[in-house]
Task: structure prediction
Amino acid sequence: MTIWVMGFRGEDSTSRILCEESNGDFKLITKPLRHPSSHSILFRYGNPDYQDLDRKIVRDNLINQASNILCNIQKARSLMVMREHGVQVPDFTLNRLTIREEDFPLMGRRFHHSKGADIHYLTNRSELEADNSDYWTRFVPSIKEYRIHILFQKPVRMSRKEAGRSDAHPFIRNYDKGWVFQNVNFIEYHRSVEPLIEEAKKATQAMDLEYGAVDILLTTVNKPCILEINTAPRQEESGRQILREKILEHYRR
Result:
């Protein structure tokens, strides 16, 4: 069995490394298969190129359709879709004129962003007027932030963001701001994080994604709040191994 991975060839690309480590079970492609068969399996690791290829693949053998990846990449649109499906997401607006004084603080965001590099933290009207963001979300006070990997509506891996240095930003939790991922044994913690897992599953289902790494907050009132879904998350060796094993397990049943 071969899993064809539509990914990226960058030197530190997770999709490239995932395939190189697989002993031939996963093969990276950056252009369409010439003659896909009814047994061909395609895993789009964040790459929506060559959308016509999806029509040649049996639906059950396709992990993440290109059109759904494109919808998810447009972050404000993905929040709209998830909200329409009852997923708990931050309040947001595309129109700064609708923002009231009681809505501050806000997080200014870009429609297309990566690694949280676009975040502007805004505390008042003058900062908002000078801000060039595409949309704004209300700040959600939280206890912890997690990333839950959902594959075929099952949780396969979970990690928690932890401060990796003393000057880590208090709430913009990315690598550049001093935060790192700490793996969590979600089997042991399953009962305490069950609401988070269920909301992560609900989010990927709303976006019609077979695979997604869901960034989710545990708020100060112990409620889940989805920030976004990543379809090409960067992963270390153990994460790549788990993903390969779970995909092969699914298709070998």
Q: What stands out?
A: The chain has three domains: 3-64, 71-89+140-230, 92-138.
